[in-house]
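Today's session is about reading a structure prediction critically. Students often jump straight to the picture, but the first step is always the sequence itself: look for stretches that repeat, for charged clusters, for runs of hydrophobic residues. Only then move on to the predicted structure, which in these notes is written as discrete structure tokens rather than atom positions. Here is the chain we will use throughout the hour.
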Amino acid sequence: RDLHSFPTRRSSDLIVRIKVKEFGSERRAAPEHLDCLAIARDKGVPLPEVYRAANAAAIEKGLIPSVSID
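Below is the predicted structure for this chain, in token form.
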């Protein structure tokens, strides 16, 4: 398991840690819950919005592949 920290796409001052795990050839990432909760409370935004921004940043940084749902 690796831990990466970087700003979200929403704002460069919103730093979120992302846990990245690999299972064979599959890679999964999850935002650190307490980071997301602190940002949501501090900035007054809904928690799911913070999670979406964190996941988008992880995809943008190449930590996980983007998923398209057809």
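Discussion point for the tutorial: The mean pLDDT is 80.
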